[in-house]
Write a structure and sequence with these properties.
Layout (H helix, E strand, L loop, with lengths): L2 E5 L2 E4 L10 E6 L2 E6 L4 E6 L2 H13 L1 H12 L12
Antiparallel strand pairs: 1-2, 2-3, 3-4, 4-5
Length: about 90
């Protein structure tokens, strides 16, 4: 599972193995993990602490197009590109 970005202790991953819809990414913070819908920017599975989730959603909103491009790369079984972390 390639790492796309890391910021404030949060790791963002996407699977290459032909993920299922809807387009999403995995956000991991400590022992917490959430799957976040890229188009709707909402958690579809799992849970993150409130502050970590706010940071993830802020980052995803800024990089939605890049996330969708990475999703399409993963669906084609190609490595996703790195995305700039949240400042």
């Amino acid at each position: 599972m390639p790492t796309i970005s890391m910021f404030f202790g949060i790791i963002i991953h996407m699977y290459i193995r032909g993920e299922h819809n809807p387009p999403h990414f995995h956000a991991i913070y400590g022992e917490h993990e959430a799957l976040v819908d890229i188009q709707r920017l909402e958690v579809i599975e799992g849970k993150l602490p409130r502050r970590a989730l706010a940071l993830v959603l802020e980052w995803a909103n800024e990089h939605r197009e890049e996330l969708l491009e990475d999703w399409n790369l993963c669906r084609a079984k190609q490595l996703p590109k790195s995305i700039k972390p949240l400042d």
